[in-house]
């Protein structure tokens, strides 16, 4: 089983937020996108999903930014991944066209058990547990802002467009 890129990104964003203290200020979506090396548009979609799950709070205005909630910090990693991945089957038995074996196949049940075992391993872990040494210091070393030498996205709000 492989998680979607969105779930992977959501976990990386949550981990980044988990290591930042109150003194560091609340980073913006652009800050965390740059820190984890993804386009702003992808990070914005993922942050919206994390907000809906109660994992991240986005504060507006001066002094605003992203904050990992208590649920995001100490809630079950298995629950977060289940919610992000959805309840779908590992295989597409009911896809178009549907699998001709679906009425008598045992594979679907075995794969469902394997999927649940995957989530069961994640259940006791939290985002806080993921950022323990040696991961936390590496996350703290990530820059807040675009990587050196990168070019700003010309479609980003407030971006200066080059003269023609």
Describe the structure.
The protein is 46% helix and 5% strand. The protein is built from eight helices and two strands. Helix 1 (5-19) crosses helix 2, helix 1 (5-19) packs across helix 3 and helix 5 (77-85) crosses helix 6 (107-122). It has 164 residues and is mainly α.
Order of helices and strands: HHHEEHHHHH
Q: Rough shape?
A: elongated
Biggest sheet architecture:
2 strands, antiparallel
* C-alpha termini separation: 48 Å
Number of strands: 2
Level of helix content?
40-55%
Mean pLDDT: 83
Gyration radius, rounded? 19 Å
Strand content: under 5%
Structural class of the helix and strand makeup?
mainly alpha
SS field, number of helical segments: 8
Low-confidence stretches: 156-164
The strand line-up of the biggest sheet is 1-2
